[in-house]
Design goal:
The protein is of the alpha+beta class and 128 residues long. It has two helices and eight strands.
Length: 128
């Protein structure tokens, strides 16, 4: 099933992996030091895809920083069911702020010590 995801259709994580590469469990699957897509759950990220809460851990935090530094948009999927991920379009990561950043002081979303920071994203509109 290699190819390009179609807007509005749902895919399994295995299908996403076959199309785009990267891992089948990561929220930002990477391949060759590049973020291939974003897979976000609204249960834990109610503001996704515009803002994504990044859990603490070197791999997760590194992938959030990489998403911003690569500057290029990537496909984003939102979880709709147990293994149903809806393709909602391409987004570009614009900013990653670590929980210790002054802009996040007192932010109630980061009250949980398991969270490292917030990744900001914007919809990418292709020019044809």
């Amino acid at each position: 099933m290699p190819g390009v995801p179609k807007l509005g259709l749902t895919y399994t994580r295995q299908q996403i992996n076959e199309m785009l590469g990267g891992g089948v469990q990561s929220f930002l699957p990477m391949k060759n030091a590049r973020v291939m897509c974003g897979c976000f759950q609204l249960e834990t990220n109610p503001n996704a895809p515009d803002e994504v809460l990044v859990a603490a851990g070197p791999q997760r935090e590194n992938s959030a920083r990489t998403a911003v530094l690569q500057l290029t948009p990537f496909p984003v999927f939102l979880r709709e069911g147990a293994n149903d991920w809806k393709f909602i379009g391409k987004y570009r990561a614009t900013r990653y702020l670590h929980r210790e950043h002054r802009f996040l002081e007192g932010d109630p979303r980061l009250a949980d010590e398991k969270l490292a920071g917030i990744l900001s994203m914007e919809k990418y509109e292709e020019v044809v």
